[in-house]
């Protein structure tokens, strides 16, 4: 039961250039300032947020991100314009020698998350997790391998090889759940925010134009001492947070969830036949499940409310969510 554990911290981080502490982010000229979903007055759950309200509040977890925007106008293959980026999650310092228990869940497999078979087999993470666009998977994987080999030069020689994770995006103490998403999925008319059918009321009532179904990559971090089996159970609950935003997980969507814990350390080459691990009782998992659902929902909504308008190749324009219109809809439902 929820009362058996001290309050958990609900944490979210969006896919985008804003830093974790920011409540607003600069917008292109003419666009309104971007804010996080809670700033719109949405009711997003019962658990309190962490200090930064970011996945980096899970002790030891670090995140790096860069966005590449270069050139305008008509597409010239091999030259641009460029609209892409990469996000990297480092589970803990020296994760190669101090592996982190991990589990994964594939909600819909029209996509790719490299290295997933080894995570499923081993039950741990031993390198950073990278998120990027589909066509850049090999480049980013090569970058992760180069980064690892520069720090551990024995890899592939006298040490094990590696298969990087790249996705195309009982102490009864306080535990933290953090969620980071790479969100590029769904239809406007399906959007639900805090239980309110914002998508249906947002525009002129017409369905959004047909197009690729997109994908979502969900990364869950926690400092609760969960094993690989429990982390896979946690990963499955992210699907419920996704559903709260209105997603129906369309046929062509790629939806991958990876969860890891910093609460235990799996040694690289154990000298003894056994090593200690703290075990979290399954009967106390419910608050972690609930916090995962809430944090996933909020991370997705933040990705929408913080995103800015982008003009890509051949003049294609991706309009940011009109927050003034969203506020009008929310105000209407509060009457």
Explain what you see.
There is one protein chain. Helix 4 crosses helix 5 (286-306). The longest helix has 21 residues, at 286-306. It contains 6 helices and 15 strands. The strands form 4 sheets. Strands 1, 6, 7, 10, 11, 12 and 13 form a 7-stranded mixed beta sheet that branches. The protein has a 4-stranded mixed beta sheet with strand order 4-5-8-9, covered by helices on one side. The protein has 335 residues and is an alpha+beta fold.
Q: What class do helices, strands and sheet pairing give?
A: alpha+beta
Uncertain regions spanning at least 5 consecutive residues: 1-24
How many alpha or pi helices? 6
Q: How would a crystallographer describe the biggest sheet?
A: 7 strands, mixed
**Percent of residues in beta strands:** 15-25%
| Basic shape | globular
Helix content: 10-25%
Q: What is the CA-atom radius of gyration, in angstroms? A: 20 Å
**Element order, helices and strands?**
EEEEEEHEEHEEHEHEEHEEH
How many beta strands in the DSSP annotation? 15
Termini distance? Answer: 34 Å
List keywords for this structure.
about 325 residues; 6 helices; globular; single chain; alpha+beta; four-stranded mixed sheet; disordered N terminus
What would you say about this model in short?
The protein has 335 residues and is an alpha+beta fold. The chain is built from six helices and 15 strands. It has helices at 116-122, 137-151, 198-202, 228-244, 286-306, 323-334; strands spanning 9-13, 24-25, 34-35, 62-70, 82-90, 98-109, 124-125, 129-131, 165-167, 176-185, 214-222, 254-261, 266-267, 310-311, 317-318.
């Amino acid at each position: 039961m929820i009362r058996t554990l001290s309050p958990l911290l609900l944490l979210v981080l969006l896919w985008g250039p804003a830093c974790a502490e920011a409540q607003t982010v600069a917008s292109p000229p003419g666009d309104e300032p971007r804010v996080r979903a809670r700033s719109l007055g949405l009711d997003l759950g019962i658990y309190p947020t962490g200090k930064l309200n970011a996945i980096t509040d899970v002790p030891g977890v670090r995140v790096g991100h860069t966005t590449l925007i270069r050139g305008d106008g008509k597409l010239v293959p091999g030259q641009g314009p460029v609209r892409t980026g990469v996000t990297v999650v480092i589970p803990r310092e020296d994760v190669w020698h101090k592996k982190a228990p991990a589990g994964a869940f594939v909600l819909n497999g029209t996509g790719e998350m490299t290295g997933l078979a080894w995570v499923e087999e081993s039950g741990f993470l031993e390198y950073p997790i990278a998120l990027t666009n589909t066509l850049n998977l090999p480049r980013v994987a090569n970058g992760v391998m180069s980064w690892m080999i520069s720090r551990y030069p024995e890899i592939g020689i006298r040490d094990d090889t590696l298969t990087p994770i790249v996705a195309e995006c009982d102490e009864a103490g306080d535990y933290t759940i953090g969620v980071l998403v790479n969100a590029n999925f769904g239809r406007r008319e399906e959007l639900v925010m805090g239980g309110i059918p914002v998508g249906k009321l947002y525009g002129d009532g017409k369905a959004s134009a047909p197009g690729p179904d997109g994908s979502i990559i969900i990364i869950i971090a926690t400092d609760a001492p969960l094993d690989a089996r429990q982390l896979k159970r946690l990963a499955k609950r992210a699907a419920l947070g996704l559903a709260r935003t209105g997603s129906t997980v369309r046929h062509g969507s790629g939806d991958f969830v990876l969860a890891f814990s910093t609460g235990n350390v799996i040694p690289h080459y154990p000298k003894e036949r056994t090593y200690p691990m703290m075990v979290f009782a399954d009967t106390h998992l419910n608050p972690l499940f609930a916090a995962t659902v809430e944090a996933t929902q909020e991370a997705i909504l933040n990705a929408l409310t913080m995103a800015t308008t982008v003009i890509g190749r051949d003049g294609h324009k991706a309009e940011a969510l009109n927050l003034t219109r969203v506020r009008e809809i929310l105000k209407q439902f509060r009457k």
